[in-house]
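Raw record, unedited: Alpha/beta hydrolase
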Amino acid sequence: MTALHVGPTRLNVECLGDPGGPVVVLVHGLTLNSLAAYYFSVAGELAAAGHRVVMYDQRGHGRSERPHTGYRLETFTDDLLALLDTLGVDRPFFLVGDCFGGAVAMDFAVQYPDRLIGAVLIESVLPTHDWAREMSRLLARLAEAARDPRAVGPIEREHGRDAARAAHQSRTLLLDTTLVEDIAASRTREEAVWSSLDVPVLALYGGDSPLAPTAPALARVLPRCRSVTIPGHGHRVLVDARETVGELLVDWMREGHRRPQGARTP
């Protein structure tokens, strides 16, 4: 793993696979998440398929720096852009986002569509005004629960030290930063903006996830979206169905999605 200064913030980065292969950038979710979610699920399969795989801990997570402020969606997107420039990723690439990482991916896609071959959303929704409101409410509830310092103890007993360490980091992020307020104040876009997004999108959901019912609507809004539901799995489909998710990603990326220069979609 490598620590890179991306602007004023230090981010922890891990790269796998062929440095000359098609680039895949993996963006994880909020609070309990880190690049480990990908490292122990689909990163190896993507690397084995010939890709250059880039994973990183987003600000406030894992081994990356945890500033007190700076947690609006657009700041996470700016981190991603700066990371790409720091790593010298100057050709179109695949962008994969799980949960909140999907919001970062779509915020990036709507601003820099020509930099992408395609985007993958895993258990995610579009970052609209409603999304920011619901996310801030959820984070506020989590922050209230995290105020009890005894909450980490049962996690260590049931799931081990690594899970307890992640829970402690999540508690610190929720209570000692402006995350909750910043997500509520994030720059978002109305749903109509997304209907003109000319980027291929693969959207994956667990069949038992509360987000699964949103899949048809997402496919209707995004003009180049393919939606896949994986039966028997919930919100943790990336980890719990890692082999299925990995196969879907590799197959979809092998299809090739970038249009010839000057071509237009029907």
